[in-house]
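Reopening closed ticket. The problem is back. First fold of the pair:
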Amino acid sequence: MLVLGGSGLLGGELLSQARALHIDAIGTSTRSTGLTGGEHWRQLDLRDRQATIELVRATRAHVVINVAYRQSDWSSTADGAANAAIAAKSAGAHLVFVSSDAVFSGAESPYSERALPDPRTPYGAAKAAAETAVRAIAPACTIARTSLIISSNGSSVHERLAHAAARGDGHLFTDDVRCPVHVTDLAGALLELAHARRNGMHHLAGPEAMSRYDLGRLITLRDGLDPTRIQAAQRALLPMPGPLDVRLDSQATQRAIATRLRGASSFLTTSG
């Protein structure tokens, strides 16, 4: 298994779970330093198509999972996804591409897996373009859209934002609603989909819709911080608010897999 973007939160969890299952898993990163594991890491810039093709062939991966992205870089997110699809198809590997709820505007929430993208942000547009390219290049691929990814140790983006808000640095929106998912649940579901070679579109988000403000309060309570210090704000009041209520309906995929996708109220208030 080759995990593109293996040095990130989700990529790292995928590699950890895969190796626990005795899967020979290799991760990639754009960085040349700070990689541990020797032969289990490769440096790769997905924007380099030929290098991506050569690496997938050299590793002889049966499965390629692409979790790599850069929110502010169209080339990495969209072109990189197309390059990964070309590389996987040329090597005969099954591709799993991880997309985002950012492909939706929020106008038709909740969104089923049959919903068509209508992005309102550059990042959402890049992910939507990536989905289109990946499906055209590798029709048998697995595409999985997800939402806010939360960890158990404060390492995710939203956990860091919640911690900062509890220290009086910043605020969290009460009208910005998503379906948070725990990174261990998400990684387990992705590995299950990859193992079954389940093609098509899949939604992998938590079953509980929650505002970023309420999510931040749960995070700070779990981590022993004072949630009353978090300042509430409304995203709708911004000049360009972007998507507000974006809920992914993951029921169809949840019925098809054994991995349970827990809601934030569950995984943030229990030791698991």
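Second fold of the pair, where the issue appears:
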Amino acid sequence: MIEPSPLPGDPTELHLRFVYADSLSDTPHADTLEEWRVEVLHRRRTHDNGRCPTAPGECEADHCPAYTLSDSAVGSMAFFRVHLDRGRNAYAALADESEDLHEIAQVLLDPVTGYFTDEVSELLEYSGSALLVMDRVTLREEWRGQGLGTILASEAIFRLMPGCRAVACAPGVTDLGSESLKNRAEWDRVNTKISHGWKSIGFRLYRDNIHLLSPVSEDVEEQRGALRGRLVELAASWRTAVS
């Protein structure tokens, strides 16, 4: 049984907005790297009693004209779809983009060909030629601690992974400004929790903190179902806490 949730709102009202900005630049780098930004939004229903045609509390939220909907940003995710078979050398493209992406390229890709190393290729079933990199997952502090980052990342990966042979990430803390994480023990605890969260999606440690997920693994669909069940439990817990 989940304890009453301290979440600031109904977690089932969270939704994702996928944003890909194409500059229409005809460059090999743009052909190789697609940067996807995923906005995590929370939908809030606000009731104006003065506009309600019935007594407050007796109307239906889906039909009452006194309700208005608004979205507030509660987090974001960043993904890169890396096309190994078009544009420039994918290893070089990742190395030029950021230090974190370079670290992933060093473990997974051949610097000469830009393709998966022979060792990585032997591990992966063929399901496409691209690589999906989960670069950042960030939630506002009041939404953390309940596993929502894992649930939301699972949904984003499911939408972005078609055509990819692998999904990769390097788990770790991204909120370097948090006062609580200046304690080494707390830093290690949070990093371990993050790593376990990604394992619950289906990621497995490959080498040097680089984790891989195979899009064709049976675990992906199974784990997604389990995480969606967790979301339902969190919502029930939240409703109990606010009732």
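Update: turned out to be a display glitch only; the data is intact. The beta strands are 14-20, 33-47, 67-83, 128-139, 163-169, 204-207, 210-213. The chain has one domain: 11-242. Please close again.
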